[in-house]
Amino acid sequence: MSTAVRQPAAAAADRKSATMGQALRHALRDAMADDPDVHVFGEDVGTLGGVFRVTDGLTAEFGPDRCTDTPLAEAGILGTAAGMAMYGLRPVVEMQFDAFAYPGFEQLVSHISRMRNRTRGKMPMPLTVRIPYGGGIGGVEHHSDSSEAYYMATPGLHVVTPATVADAYGLLRASIASDDPVVFLEPKRLYWSKADWDPQEPEAVPGIGRAVVRRRGSSATLITYGPSVPVCLEAAEAAREEHGNGAEGWDLEVIDLRSLVPFDEETVAASVRRTGRAVVVHESPGFAGPGGEIAARITERCFHYLEAPVLRVAGFDIPYPPPMLERHHLPGVDRVLDAVARLQWESGFTESGGFGQGRGGGAV
Asked: pTM for the complete prediction?
């Protein structure tokens, strides 16, 4: 009997935890160990180990030729990476902060994104651009942008962003292994988030282009990614506690897109067709932001299943605010629940009178 009592405690002691930053470091290290063509470089990634210490120890283990400090020249960093990729290497570059990447945008748009198309597929472009992005850390100007819409609107780029420790490792490994250029957006505020995760036995995760359902629900679908995933999960729990899961309750499903390009329409459409309502949540500004594209795709594929318009909760259409004001700018639980409350719960649509045909009509 005493042995049976001790087993759960022993199992708990055996569990390992890691932060997202640590998982990213393990992904870089394992990729470099597995493939000598993988090179990491960027501003302060070597001796300092990166501003967020994601590359800490890589120069000591692999040498300065494999993990290399660069000048403060983003256009030169990306131009060099493009040339390395053209000659068969697999560069992984770090743009120190989201808004620091803009000087290199021309290289990304004019050359990196077009190379495979320009050569009719004969020349791959195995290049990964790591960009810490988003708010939540009190960063000053040029240190807290949500610039994903720029990359999404550039044909030829894959755009991915993890929200969990396991995805940080799995998606970064998949990005480095890809023969297409990948913009890998790392949510700054989640660098220190923790989860049970063993670097010796990392769990398998879906690849690039696949979304996952983080929470099952039946009333409405929250569609989000990156730093807004924990916000939506918290909102879904708050909705359950405040409104219940009964016939008139709010039982919210949460989808983590993980991959913005390619976009997993099948997972999103299947959820919205089942729930009949959808809210898209992201930190990027609302006007011409990712939510507009996602809402349009949902409307095109799920129109006859919708019981309310697709709504968006986004950052405001302003330059990113100072640190003391960012809490008002970033989508939070209250703003998400306010949007859910506007999903026409008492619209009374019926099969004979309007929308709702896919779910039998009526308010949930």
From this structure: 0.90
pLDDT value of residue 243: 72
Phi, psi of 255, rounded to the nearest 5 degrees: -110, 125
pLDDT in tens, 57-68: 999 999 999 999
Q: Are 243 and 276 in contact (CB under 8 A)?
A: no
User: Is residue 122 classed exposed, middle or buried when 0-12, 13-18 and 19+ CB atoms within 10 A define those classes?
Assistant: exposed
What count of Cα atoms within 13 Å lies in the side-chain half-sphere of residue 119? 11
Mean pLDDT of the chain: 91
- Residues in the chain predicted with pLDDT less than 70, given as ranges, are 1-15, 244-249, 347-364
| Active site (catalytic) residues | 143
Residues 6+ apart with CB under 8 A from 102: 74, 147
Tell the burial category of 352 from Cβ atoms under 10 Å away from its Cβ (0-12, 13-18, 19+): exposed
Tokens for 356? 């709702």
Task: Name, in order, each residue with C-beta under 8 angstroms of 337's C-beta and a sequence gap of 6 or more.
Answer: 235, 238, 239, 242
